[in-house]
Amino acid sequence: MRILFLSVLFLFSCSHHEKLPKESNVQVVKELKGNRWANLYFSGQPNQAEIKELKAAGFATVINLRQKKEKKYNESWESALVRSEGLNYYNVPVSMKTEINDEFIDSITSKVGKHRKEGKVLIHCSSGNRVALWLGAHFKKDHGFSNELSFELAKELGLTKEDVQDKLRAYLR
Q1: Is 141 within 8 Å of 60 (Cβ atoms)?
Q2: Based on CB atoms within 10 Å of each CB, which residue in 49, 56, 129, 162 is the most buried?
Q3: What are φ and ψ of residue 27, in 5° steps?
């Protein structure tokens, strides 16, 4: 009986993983590629033309995880443009010095929750790694996914840099 129960449990967890609503390398808008989990989209930095296309593509909110001091980035043009397009805009700067803890995760999750029903949400940084870092921690904290599944999904959805992977591993411990 115990073996039957464990077999069913194993099959359910595998089939559940296969049905998770994720897509990699999707077209967010014209040229901007990213990843998707339900109506959350994750990408690197969108350019001005791509930001202008977001509203027509069903987006309601942009959450930027970049720091103002990063090279080739000026947050002021982005926030002004996003807001002028009628979208919600938030900047939650994340660096390698940022402590990944429940408060950090909640700071992004609360913004997603506040606007998710209004339309799609784009969360971006320069490459998508910091977004995937938040996402992996969010899966563990808010959805109760195992450490392994949280890490695996974060990698599938943009976590490619080893130092950022180490940061997620540290949170998951």
Answers
A1: no
A2: 129
A3: -85, 115
For 167, half-sphere exposure in the C-beta direction (CA atoms, 13 angstrom radius) is 25
Q: Where are the alpha helices (DSSP H) in the chain?
A: 2-18, 48-54, 75-84, 102-115, 129-143, 147-156, 162-172
- Phi, psi dihedrals of residue 42, rounded to the nearest 5°: -130, 135
pTM of the model: 0.84
Q: Where are the domains of the chain?
A: 21-172
End-to-end Cα separation, the chain, in angstroms: 33
Mean pLDDT of the chain: 86
Hey, what amino acid is at 158? G
Tell how far CA 77 is from the center of its chain.
Answer: 22
* Res 72: pLDDT: 67
Who contacts 73 (Cβ-Cβ below 8 Å, separation ≥6)?
A: 45, 66, 126
Distance in angstroms (rounded) separating the CA atoms of residues 95 and 70: 10
Going edge to edge, which strands form the sheet with 88-91? 22-29, 32-37, 40-43, 120-124, 59-64, 88-91
Q: For the stretch 64-97, what's the b/e string if a residue is b when 16 or more beta carbons lie within 10 angstroms of its beta carbon?
A: bbbbeeeeeeebeebeebbeebebbbbebebeee
